[in-house]
Amino acid sequence: MRKWQTIMWAAAVGLLASGGTERAAEAGIIHHEPSGIDETDRSQYLGWDQESDQTVVGQAGGSSIDFYLTDHGDLHFDSYETSVLTTASVSITAAKLQAGDPIGPDAFFSVPGWGFAWTTRSGQFDPSSSGFLGVRIRKAGLWHYGWAEVAFAGTRQAIRGWAYEDQPGVGLQAGQIAAQGLSVGAVPEPASFATLGLGALLTAVGSRRRRRRGGSMPT
To answer: Which of 157, 35, 174 shows the shortest CA–CA distance to 101?
Structure first.
């Protein structure tokens, strides 16, 4: 009996050691909504940082801002560290995407050295329209794909939100903020599995002890 109990306790400890501690979150889509100003008059620049919730009005040289909606109907960006999905292989027209459109390695992106792309001026966005931009950013030398939701209405322009895939080289869909088919909270954390397993083992040990004392279960 003591030997059996020792084995069960060892298994319980093993569960805690292997799955009981919380693991780091797996790579996935990182979504941001603007924490600052998200709408300006179109006579101003409106910029955002794809890797945070930061926005800025006006040009901020040397900052972490990745993209700017300008005062003259186009999008500005650092052409060597960021780029925008375009309508053709050699184009300065930003593609206007709808929710669900694919963004990834197979898409056309602006070429290095071209740090702008048309949006409302000679572009696919009307002065009163909204849609998604496909973008990519370079991190540690590797491209990460993402999107930004923009809107234009008369003399106003706005940035509503943006996201990017934390895993390099992996595409996503315009407007996507989570992995397809997964719901946050629907899958137990590894620690939860371990706790459930430990509870079952301890219950089994206690039940065996009670049966032992009552003489109903031979060993």
So the answer is: 174
